[in-house]
Amino acid sequence: MQIAFVTYPGMTALDAIGPYEVLRALPDAEVRFVWHEIGPITTDSGVLMLGATHSFAETPAPDIVLVPGSGAATASTARDEGLLDWLRTVHATTSWTLSVCSGAVILAAAGLLEGKSATTHWRALDLLRPFGVRPQADARIVHEGKIVTAAGVSAGIDLGLFMAGEIAGRAYAEAIQLSLEYDPQPPFDSGHISKASLKTKAQAHKIMMRHGMFRPAEITAATRLAWDTALSRLSARVRE
């Protein structure tokens, strides 16, 4: 079972590494980190690096593909036609197509989420609407056919466990969960936008701005892409 994690410059590392640690434990899992070419990939911190182990050309038919998100490079990556073409092609034959965080925006840009429900990071939820997607703000995982989307960053671990249950059964998934000792008991109850105080939300915005996550310019660029895509599809339908 070949599992391809899209690995692109500026991605958020935990979006991929969280589910990777779960999915690599599946029976017969063959994991690939894929990009246009093999080589090092600098993540959004500018310090931590991952590596693309295979190119898109070397990975024409993965069983599972996962697209991670980014607080700084979603818009530019969602305009990468080479990536979008590859996603459309492999989605035709995948068993599962997955996203974590704003990776859902990239799936949407490829036209894979139109008319479907999906979730993403709370700062990116509104970016889904112009693509014809129904954003689910309160869902940590959204399962639509063979497409499964996860909310922000840490939700990738939950996605991995959900997929382990779907593929290998609940008992095996529970064993993976125990092997990782994944037993979330956060010291604070502010992990969802609906639970956070105004002060916490304001501080979270400051933290994200300081670390280049979902800055206004990125949100504006992603919004422009979404509307450009929506208008292009509308024009195409009118011509038909």
TrEMBL record:
- The residue ranges of the DJ-1/PfpI domain are 2-161
Pfam families linked: DJ-1_PfpI
Gene Ontology terms: biological process: regulation of DNA-templated transcription
Matching InterPro entries:
Class_I_gatase-like, DJ-1/PfpI, INH-QAR
Name of the featured protein: DJ-1/PfpI family protein
- Organism encoding this protein: Nocardia pseudobrasiliensis
